[in-house]
Amino acid sequence: MISQFFVLSQRGDNIVFRDYRGEVQKGSAETFFRKVKFWKEDFERDAPPVFNVDGVNYFHVKVAGLLFVATTRVNISPSLVLELLQRIARVIKDYLGVLNEDSLRKNFVLVYELLDEVIDFGYVQTTSTEVLKSYVFNEPIVIDAGRLPPLGPASIFMQGTKRMPGTAITKSVVANEPGARKRDEIFVDVIEKLSVTFNSSGFILTSEIDGTIQMKSYLTGNPEIRLALIDDLSIGGSDYRSSAAVILDDCNFHESVHLDNFDVDRTLTLVPPDGEFPVMNYRMTQAFKPPFRINALIEETGSLKAEVIIKVRAEFSSSISANTVLVQMPLPTLTTRVSFELEPGAVGNTTDFREANKRLEWGLKKIVGGSEQTLRAKLTFSQELHGNIMKEAGPLSMTFTIPMYNASRLQVKYLQIPKKPNAPNPYRWVRYVTQANSYVARL
Fold this sequence. Notes:
Number of helices: 7
Oligomer: single chain
Strand order of the largest sheet: 13-16-9-8-26-24-19-22-21
Shape: globular
Largest sheet: 9 strands, mixed
Distance between the termini: 46 Å
Structural class: mainly beta
Number of strands: 26
């Protein structure tokens, strides 16, 4: 049971606000945003997803740069509320096509209608996009396509700052295309988040993959489709395919998925509901080849000076490129100045020393597979360090996105959709995206 729901912009502007029970003071949105900013500035880290202020429990998730927040005074399961916020964001995105501040402001009437059907007096009714179609009648105002990156066979995997995320489908599930036409399409994204820890020599200490097969359907008539995975797939240690190339520790499936033939030929049968949903979630701890090898060396070069050398090597094919790469490293608290030195010919690199939190940042617009990047940073301290410099610096962390690559080697073999008489074949898009969840190297 929640009392309030609201959505804030990155500036703290209140875009959407709904008070269901009147139990929490009206200034809760401002209280929440000030508390989040206070956490960031003084504790040098993000606020936790759940915290309490003056007897009010605040729950929040960040989606597409927006803060989705719920409040309550009662004791309620945090995981339930956080999942609810994620599902509300997903439903709004299904209806608006694209989720951002502009689309929310232009469609606030539709958004409020959705909220009134999803939650009644603080209690959840439904978060199904398909069920809501029977109760929600406002049409979305589509965002001008000229403001968004083009979506097409080539541009889907476009590299650089204008590249769209792997799950970005900028069409509404209820709005038709110009001319009252609806194009039959289905998008399947295999998204993997990696957690890898390296020791000081660059060897792997821990590694894990959290993956999901995400689907968004624009098919008419609710056809039954078949999604086939590779045959050489094993799930759990007790599986008879113990010698399989891909071994998953465990997995779970969406309620619409039928597993009648899964043990035989690794085929999933389902009638996809409208909107975006996870077909399958999986976890893998089997040894895999990480996409990057990273290591850092720090050594004193004088009583008040030290040098950091960071090396990043891309271990994937040269036909693939990683983008939005960011390397971060905490520095000793007595660091006052940092000068950077990049390799000759380095293009699209940015370097920065965040003096407020003593953090080195190295951004790389693009890393081509098989290449190696090196950064040298010369540190100057305000006074001599008394102790081991290695204890005050690091660990090194890295974030990235690699389109058309997945570390687990789990593949979609085919996506079968029944063909309607005298109708064109539906368009199928299968995409792979790998991201960093926790990619860390110790010094």
